[in-house]
């Protein structure tokens, strides 16, 4: 088929899309100003991306993708010569006589046909010496087709540098039928890491986050060993020397801080470190289990929790190598209140000295030995363990999960699970499911290896029925569940985590406020002024072993209460971080991928979530996550708050450290305010069911519209995926996503791209363009003159009446 014929084909497509555009606009209103304005906006967008000579000096920094992903049309890097007018260029008249509406439709077609192209952003600054630059090409070279109507660009190997060259090589080596999704193949065969490495140089799937690697776990083990050594030294030295150091006689100063606050502060650091390890293990374990080649280990692993519910109580999940460290970390929480009772003051030969409480010291030694043992278990368990994850690609957010199931042949098994009311209902629906995460191949082309979630269809694995394929009765009973109950309850937003339900949140906020007011009244009423001290009601004198009942009680109990408050707030913080991306998708106007699909707050380390929430302008998440870490000071300060002293009038009274008490009251005020901040705007978190396991998340990602979206088709790495999701584009240019029902009455709830006002969901390519060869040639026809379209002069719309067009 000749070039003019393909030009005619492009015009047919343009006319189809133009008619669809006209149908989407309100009849009876002059739409020309708006269309002109949209075309001008698109023109400015192309200029800002480096197509023209007007460059953005900061483009390289904002969009790292643009530094190595080249344009498929060379010569666009160079602006037109100053002496050469637009009318003199060979292709300048390409759009000269085109109607503006047709031009707008053509631009949309160009985007649809080249959505996988990333236009490099030029930079006003001189290029770095190490960056290879594209060779200068004459306009005759750019615009001269060969005999087949194709454009020959010559040797392109030197244009893009090493990274771009590697991507080009990967594209050339991809099988010719890669445009077909593997989920449509009839045969899926498992491919081991060794086979994949031999066939296509695929690396082993043993990637894990840094905190689960041997250096990180070894660092935790070293810290535990140092703590054990320090405790043993303090206990032995104090027992043999009748104390550690002389008491200064004051409840302030550096000495008081060292003996009454520093021990539990160090214990808090170790505890948070251990909690981060357990949290990361929870998140990686389901994917690691799915990567196993043994069917027995893969059964039901999609329902393993991705996050610990709370550290107030342990969760016994999976094998003993996982739940034993979890239980030990839960027990290790007691190290903070115990460390607050480690040192006390005793009198020896008429001199007061700081001494180590022997019983407490040896209990702490035992606890840290257990923590050391659990760390060693995790080092052995995670070292060289297969996790199913590609190097550098930790599954941290919704987009990562969608990428894993985009090519899956198991997605159809999740039909109907999106409206299930509970995890048990989804489990019943997917009974026998044994999805595998890893490399796959097909006998149709053994050299074609891909990575993702799916189930095997060869004789070495069970067939689809044994894997829990839905029967007709189960399918009809679930997938057509009404979206609202007879009483009018909206099923699609009926679920809310227990700790975020209105009754619980309001009750906690009210109870905390009442208790805080009571604490202020008791603390500052003249008759009960805490600064005057209070009677301990217990014997304060130390017994052999430096144990004082009064000091132990008024150090351990306040610290324990503070620890409970801290752990409770940790659960609220984690729940908020889990639900925030879904709340963004629930917004009526949708949300950018950067603030929803790519938000990974639940997988962040302490303070990392705060920083990323600030960047995404999620102020509530930023404040709550910051306070969740700050509140560790509540048990730390409460443990060293009181101490038995003898006033001049005689007797023994418990006195507070006034500066520490003031800071503690301020933290409690922040605690109450944080609880109150959780009350408003919780309706956006409503979903049909929870999203705390892989199966629950996949249930919202298994619709065909999402799986076929171009953004999730074969991204090279995480950076490429973020680029396809417009994470590096300007805010106004980024696509938006939402979670809801499908278009045209489709009763399937799930994540989708939000259509723009210029693009109808019903728009489809011309039937002839479904042929790959025809589609490729049509691309050249449409894109041939697109590099000068930005120079097409279009006047700004004129304000009419009360309407106003804004930039």
From TrEMBL:
UniProt keyword annotations, A-Z: Membrane, Transmembrane, Transmembrane helix
Transmembrane feature ranges: 217-238, 258-282, 360-382, 505-525, 545-569, 621-646, 658-679
Segments of skewed composition (Basic residues): 174-185
Region (Disordered): 45-64, 116-185, 467-488
Keyword Zinc in record: no
Record's keyword annotation contains Transmembrane: yes
Name by which UniProt lists this protein: Phosphoribosylaminoimidazole-succinocarboxamide synthase
């Amino acid at each position: 088929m000749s070039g003019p014929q393909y030009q005619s084909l492009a015009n047919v497509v343009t006319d189809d899309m133009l008619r669809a555009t006209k149908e989407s606009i309100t009849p009876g209103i002059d739409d020309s100003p708006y269309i002109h304005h949209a075309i001008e906006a698109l023109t400015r967008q192309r200029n800002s991306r480096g197509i023209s000579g007007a460059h953005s000096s900061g483009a390289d920094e904002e969009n790292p993708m643009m530094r190595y992903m080249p344009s498929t049309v060379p010569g666009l890097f160079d602006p037109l010569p100053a002496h050469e007018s637009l009318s003199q260029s060979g292709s300048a008249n390409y759009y000269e006589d085109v109607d503006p509406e047709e031009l707008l439709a053509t631009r949309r077609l160009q985007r649809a046909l080249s959505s996988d192209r990333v236009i490099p952003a030029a930079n006003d600054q001189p290029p770095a010496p190490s960056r290879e630059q594209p060779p200068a090409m004459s306009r005759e070279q750019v615009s001269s087709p060969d005999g087949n109507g194709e454009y020959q660009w010559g040797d392109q190997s030197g244009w893009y540098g090493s990274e771009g060259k590697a991507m080009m090589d990967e594209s050339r080596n991809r099988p010719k039928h890669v445009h077909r999704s593997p989920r449509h193949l009839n045969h899926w065969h498992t491919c081991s890491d060794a086979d994949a490495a031999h066939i296509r140089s695929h690396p082993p799937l043993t990637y894990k986050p840094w905190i689960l690697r041997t250096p990180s776990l070894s660092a935790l083990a070293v810290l535990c060993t140092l703590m054990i050594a320090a405790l043993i030294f303090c206990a032995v030295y104090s027992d043999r020397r009748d104390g550690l150091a002389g008491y200064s006689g004051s409840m302030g100063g550096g000495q008081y801080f060292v003996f009454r606050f520093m021990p539990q502060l160090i214990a808090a650091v170790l505890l948070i470190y251990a909690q981060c390890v357990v949290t990361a293990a929870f998140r990686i374990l389901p994917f690691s289990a799915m990567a196993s080649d043994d069917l027995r280990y893969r059964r039901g692993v999609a329902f393993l929790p991705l996050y610990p519910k709370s550290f107030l109580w342990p969760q016994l999940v999976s094998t003993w190598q996982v739940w034993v460290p979890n239980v030990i970390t839960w027990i290790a929480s007691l190290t903070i209140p115990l460390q607050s009772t480690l040192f006390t003051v005793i009198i020896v030969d008429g001199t007061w000295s700081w001494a180590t409480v022997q019983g407490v010291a040896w209990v702490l030694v035992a606890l840290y030995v257990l923590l050391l043992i659990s760390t060693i278990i995790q080092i052995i368990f995670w070292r060289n363990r297969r996790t199913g994850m590609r190097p550098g690609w930790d599954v941290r957010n919704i987009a990562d999960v969608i990428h894993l199931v985009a090519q899956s042949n198991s997605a159809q098994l999740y039909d109907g699970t999106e409206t299930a009311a509970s995890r048990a209902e989804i489990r019943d629906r997917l009974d026998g499911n044994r999805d595998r995460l890893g490399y796959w191949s097909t006998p149709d082309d053994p050299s074609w290896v891909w990575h993702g979630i799916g189930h095997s269809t060869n004789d070495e694995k069970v067939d689809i029925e044994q894997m829990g394929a839905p029967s007709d009765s189960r399918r009809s009973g679930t997938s057509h569940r009404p979206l609202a109950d007879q009483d009018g309850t909206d099923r699609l937003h009926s679920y809310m985590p227990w700790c975020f339900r209105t009754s619980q949140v309001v009750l906690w906020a009210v109870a905390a406020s009442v208790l805080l007011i009571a604490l202020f009244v008791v603390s500052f009423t003249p008759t009960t002024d805490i600064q005057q001290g209070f009677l301990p009601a217990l014997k304060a004198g130390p017994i052999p072993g430096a144990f004082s009942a009064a000091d132990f009680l008024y150090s351990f109990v306040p610290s324990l209460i503070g620890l409970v408050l801290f752990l409770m707030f940790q659960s609220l913080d984690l729940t908020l971080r889990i639900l925030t991306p879904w709340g963004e998708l629930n917004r009526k106007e949708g949300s950018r991928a950067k603030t929803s699909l790519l938000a990974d707050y639940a997988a962040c380390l302490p303070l990392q979530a705060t920083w990323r929430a600030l960047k995404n302008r999620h102020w509530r998440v930023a404040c709550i996550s910051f306070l969740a870490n700050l509140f560790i000071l509540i048990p730390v300060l409460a443990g060293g708050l009181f101490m038995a002293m003898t006033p001049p009038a005689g007797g023994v009274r418990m006195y507070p450290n006034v500066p520490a008490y003031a800071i503690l009251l301020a933290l409690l005020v922040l605690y109450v305010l944080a609880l109150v901040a959780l009350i408003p705007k919780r309706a956006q978190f409503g979903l049909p069911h929870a999203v705390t396991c892989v199966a629950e998340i996949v249930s919202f990602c298994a619709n065909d519209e999402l799986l076929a979206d171009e953004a999730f088709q074969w991204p090279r790495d995480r950076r490429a995926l973020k680029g396809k999701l417009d994470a590096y584009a300007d805010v106004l240019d980024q696509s938006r996503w939402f979670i809801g029902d499908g278009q045209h009455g489709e009763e399937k709830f799930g994540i989708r791209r939000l259509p723009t006002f210029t693009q109808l969901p019903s728009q489809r390519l011309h039937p002839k363009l479904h042929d790959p060869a025809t589609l490729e040639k049509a691309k050249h026809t449409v894109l041939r003159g697109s590099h000068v379209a930005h120079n097409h002069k279009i006047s700004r719309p004129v304000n009419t009446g009360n309407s106003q067009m804004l930039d």
